[in-house]
Amino acid sequence: MQLFKKLDIPPLEIGDYLAIGAIFSATDSVCTLQVLNQDETPLLYSLVFGEGVVNDATSVVLFNAIQSFDLSHISSTTVLQLVGNFLYLFVTSTMLGVFAGLLSAYVIKKLYFGRHSTDREVALMILMAYLSYMLAELFYLSAILTVFFCGIVMSHYTWHNVTESSRITTKHAFATLSFIAEIFIFLYVGMDALDIEKWKFVRTSPGKSISVSSILLGLVLVGRAAFVFPLSFLSNLTKKSPHERIEFKQQVTIWWAGLMRGAVSVALAYNQFTRSGHTQLRGNAIMITSTISVVLFSNVVFGLMTKPLVRLLLPSNAVSEPSSPKSLLSPLLGNGQGSDVEVSGPIIPRPTSIRMLLSTPSHTVHHYWRKFDDAFMRPMFGGRGFTPFVPGSPTERNANLWR
């Protein structure tokens, strides 16, 4: 706050500073995930992916909680209400997503009209995911968090209840839609950066805008380090086995993966500092242009440096190589859980590191959740590991691999 005041930026309220913190807490780990191998480093891949997605959702929830309060006069009651509102949005959005995912699994597993038809199965999965989003918007919750947890539940239960043709269709349909949406978002951010209207407000003092961008980028670097390394240290204290601990090089990779900022930060910046898509205030224009500058710099510069850095820190077998035709067919026929199918030659099951990691006995929360899942959830909602024979379902062929 004092740094911004020294730069003689038009005054910002305390709510603006808190919103800036929420805006730049949304990470974009796509670049790092593209060069990590999920089979070779399952723990690192899961940490980077999970943190990136949850950070986006959490930043939106925190941003909404900040906007719902008048922070001009902060008191202990206001702080408690802010924390309570954040927890309310987070918990209710999560439960709504879980409910929608379980409902889709139950409908496809139990009701006849939802089974044995690729069109109906794919349509139900898409519509139920969209229903969770619409319900979250209807109840003024976090739609991105609701869809995220709905997707987790649907991937664990619903996706394994449908026929193999539906699974292949759904996998490629969502991958295609995701790729198109991602390209559209990056094109939008790039085209918006070329809009000269907002840059006219900062052209009289370009050095000030560069200073703000540098401060924000420096705070991102320091904030990531203050978050990743202490938590990794605490996590390692609870791990008895050396292979379960997060090595320093992996910690650096996690730190680097969270430096990129994406479209969520730009969208939240516009939400906070503009009205009707534009601004006439110089201070707000500086914050918007600085946010765009940080997003572009982090994606272009940090993104280009990601692959060489990961290759330097991690062994060569932990970095993914371009897919060959053989590996392209394996996820379709082997459900992405391991390559059980070869283009030529006999079928030789080869468990992946993920399967070996999940099958390792350990009395953790995940261990007890799996016992509860096998005893109560899967008999009701189906999913991977549910053994009754369903004609045309891939459950039968994968059952022996997961028992």
The unreliable regions are 322-355, 385-391, 393-403
Shape: globular
- Our estimate of the beta-strand percent is under 5%
Name the helix and strand elements from N-terminus to C-terminus, one letter apiece. HHHHHHHHHHHHHHHHH
If you compute it from the alpha carbons, what radius of gyration comes out, rounded to the nearest whole angstrom? 23 Å
Note the main sheet.
none
Look at the structure and give the mean pLDDT. 77
User: What structural category do the secondary elements indicate?
Assistant: mainly alpha
- Tally of helical runs: 17
> How far is the N terminus from the C terminus?
56 Å
Q: How many strands in all?
A: 0
Question: What percent of the residues sit in helical stretches (DSSP H or I)?
Answer: 55-70%
